[in-house]
């Protein structure tokens, strides 16, 4: 008994040791660029090790004075938020139809939707550029909303569909005999019952959208539509050379919202990412 | 408020026949019980009446109107589902209220009706809870309340009491019957419990493998079974079925010899209920196999040849096993079935 408890205690210490080490490995880069962001530019690129770094807000000043970071952030938020709303509005009814109605080619349509995710974005980059140009939407947030929604739609549909498949059919049958229309059933029974799935899908879509780079680069050409991810990349190529401390700071600012999102939905996220693997 | 007619209903799932050629007339205000083993098509039949499943062939008529093409929501049928099907995101109160809202019943009436329904199933103090916070039996009662909160044309109840303890089941049973008589709503009720079937039903339908075996009042089903399936299904313990030979007005099987009508001959099956067997006599000569006192009656199993015969003996009957014993069969209550299991009736 005593030895069993002891060895269990030891294995616990070992476990925490391993997990702690791994957490440190993961967190170190973040702490590192955070520390870079609060040091003067010259100190960042010196080859000698520095044990007592100087604290400096140079990078902050540079950011806030020369760089429309607020605008970029706003663009990101609008484009991402809008795209999530669009993909939910389109995705929820689609997921419902794919999970409930029996019709020809149902599985094929489901697979086709998923397959849009399988090709490299670069393949469609050129046609999409011309498409948006002819619509006159180049360099607008509207274009970004649409393209993010398009990219994420398949994922959103599949995540929500997997949750809807878990809802017993009897529930809808009951609602139907109680006198509810299809739309009411969707709104009052199905959506509340798979709300965790919808939240998961929304957050995953938001994270993908925040990180989207290729299409944003293609569509955005000025601060009109630059989002954080593209602005960040442009930041490196200024005439002043590479401003490491400011880049670190911007990266950190871009990273924080995602971190918060992930922490908020951690519980649902693991379920969403393993969907289909285990039912229930 | 509505009669129901099923006309040659067939339900096929691919090649599998769930319900075969079912014809049934359910009278207005009737309480009809469907009884049969698991998988015999009871739920399927209910779902077709409710409009949740389309019959492959045949017509369904409710209240004089062919409803095959009428959607479930327009059929005005209330159903208690076998799996309860409570809306998980709504409180019990909202669950019971849902059909009232959907059917456009004036909001001013809701509260009183909901409380009355909840009172009936003894759930008055659980109205604020979500279904997830109720026990299985409480959920089942909530499902029942949701069905009876409005007055539909037809009640469909799929094993609505299966998860309750004996006492609650008894009281619910009486309440359901009372309510059905009061509201005069045509009711189709599925159960595995014979007592429930016997006590509730105006008529009972016995089903097996998707086909109706017999339709009749509880008395008819019990005392006049149409075939060996019905005979062996009804009664507890069920009727003894003994295979043997009939010749010249006498039925014989290992250890058994009873007189039988002259029109019974050849390979036949004798049916005799445990309550029609009496200790002392010579129709069955065998050994005591087991004695099971239950309090109000003692079940005695007698081994005659290879047959095990159940006998309902007096409450205080006791015996050691392997003791030789003679049993008399009540000659007025013997049933004979032919090789295909059909009842052999007189005047043949
Ligand atoms: N959607 C379906 N697809 C294929 N077969 C089905 C389907 N629904 C039911 N069945 C089959 O039809 C038969 C009748 O099913 P049903 O649910 O009506 O049985 P039941 O009499 O209600 O049984 P229980 O007493 O166990 O509830 C079963 O053999 C079942 O497997
Ligand atoms: Mg069933």
Automatic annotation (TrEMBL), chain A:
The chain crosses the membrane at residues 13-34, 72-97, 109-130, 142-164, 185-208, 214-235, 242-265. SUPFAM superfamilies: MetI-like. Residues 73-265 form the ABC transmembrane type-1 domain. The keyword Kinase does not apply. The keyword Membrane applies. PANTHER family: MALTOSE TRANSPORT SYSTEM PERMEASE-RELATED, MALTOSE_MALTODEXTRIN TRANSPORT SYSTEM PERMEASE PROTEIN MALG. This is Maltose/maltodextrin transport system permease protein MalG. It comes from Paragemmobacter ruber.
TrEMBL record, chain B:
CDD domains: ABC_MalK_N. Signal peptide: none annotated. One of its GO terms (molecular function) is ATP binding. The keyword Translocase applies. InterPro entries: AAA+_ATPase, ABC_transporter-like_ATP-bd, ABC_transporter-like_CS, ABC_transpr_MalK-like, ABC_transpr_MalK/UgpC-like, Mo/tungstate-bd_C_term_dom, NA-bd_OB-fold, OB_MalK-like. Residues 4-234 form the ABC transporter domain. It holds the Pfam family OB_MalK. Keywords: ATP-binding, Cell membrane, Membrane, Nucleotide-binding, Translocase, Transport. It comes from the Bacteria. NCBIfam families: PRK11650.1 (NF008653). Belongs to the ABC transporter superfamily. This is Sn-glycerol-3-phosphate ABC transporter ATP-binding protein UgpC. It comes from Paragemmobacter ruber.
